[in-house]
Design brief:
A: alpha+beta; four-stranded mixed sheet; B: Formate dehydrogenase/DMSO reductase fold; 2 strands; globular
Amino acid sequence: MAVTIKPGESYGFFTDTSICIGCKACEVACKEWNQLQGDSPKFLADSYDNTGQLDDQNWRHVKFIDQVPAQSVDAGNGKAFLMMSDVCKHCKHASCMEVCPTGAIIRTEFDTVFIQQDVCNGCRNCIAACPYSVIALNPATGTAHKCTLCYDRLQGGLQPACAKACPTQSIQFGPLAELQQAADVRLAALHSQGVSQAQLYGRDDQVYGGLNAFFLLMDKPETYGLPNAENAKLPSRNDLGGYVGALVTAVLGVIAGIVAFRRRGTS
Amino acid sequence: MIYLAAEHFVRAPQWTWYILGYFFFAGLTGGSYALATLLRLVGDARDEPAARLGFYASFVTLLACPVLLTADLGASWLRFWHMLVDVTPGDQGLNFKYWSPMSVGVWALLAFGFFAALSALESFVLDRRSNARPLGGIAGRAFNVVGGVFALFIASYTGVLLSVSNQPIWSDTWVLGGLFLASGLSGSAALLALLTRYRPQAAFSLGRLHEADGYFSILELVLLVAFFLTIIAAGTAGPTVPLLPLWLLALVGIGSSLVVARGQMRIRGAGGSAAIARAGTDTLLVSTLVLLGVLALRAAVIFSAQ
């Protein structure tokens, strides 16, 4: 899909997990373009996934969610794996951006979330906040890393490497409004074919105000390691309760101190 | 009753030993300054030596804070000042996000450093001029009160900082700010009680410090119960179990404070003096246990989510 990329418009990914074949071309393309060396090779003994997680070296991660039934099932009902190419969600209301104390995390002219490497100081507050376990610290640079949605490629008018490499168009890149429209059509098609479990995640504003990288899922979000709408909350939700609790304690503590230290006329 | 089965898919930030150290010293520096202010403003004139001890303790423990915070940044430690100044090209300016406790905390630590340093300096000058008086008048009192407000913030915001995240346990409770404050006040009272061994003029305040420690420990115990109730309700209490020894150590600290405070109040009720209280309690042992409890509490909270 040829896309004309213009600053000032919202761009993102629509990842349709129903047609992901787990080839990991996205992981490879991402590492190639972004010059990520990857983690040390390791055998995780968990399906066909030895990448394991999103981190500072893996900005795309194809999840293999094992749903091999314990017992044989009727023909056509068996599900072996759910596959999903996971990535930073570039949330509209981004938890990482909310808590970042340095201003290193910004929203770009393409409406994506980007960590400025020359500003980040490695405090890791964003890691504690990101509900998707996307961001990780690079010990060599001492800074937080994650998917940039190929910011440099967008600036050059090129679509992100992962979307370009995806052989099944499971990963689609484009203007957000167009992607949302395409997702609605795809969902309706699946539902009309009886695939009732298909659902969109992050398409609307129920999850962090909407995700620029949203998904079509074949099971509930928790199955994919994604918080559902009820659990998708911003860190700042605890500001009020935390400070009020501290304030009440401070008042009681001062009263306790006054009681203990007050002048009693002891000689 | 589980009212919300909180689910978390978040990565741990690896805030470990340096942060544990910072949280410990932040509790002590804030707590010591707050207690010193209270001793000076509401206490007897004979509490002034202990108040000065508190200002000294606050300043010395404060010195460890920026060192630990900077060391925690690892390879980026030279960029510690990016917390204060946004160096984003085209968007330079001061950083301040009132909704981010880490951002507010950095500024509060800077402001508190001013108050702690000046109060310690004032104490140093007063100790060397026997005829001098503490900063008198409204301005002097206001200085200590404002410093005390910052001190209470420093001792508590670290808990709020943990809660303002999406980490299991930390973000499932509103209690941590208060819990760390109560624990910091208790630890500071124990620290000052311990230091009175080396400053005989401050011995008058020893019994009062133990009594205050007892009150703070009751507060801490109540908040600890509230902490467990909130995370049990959220369904995320499981990871706290392997750290049972740390929780028990924290409880031993609280228990020690309560035992000594009860003994002190009995002595006072019977007309005894603070000096009797000093003779009657093994301050070294109790203060050590309380301070270990303060450290253990923070370690248990920090490591239970990571």
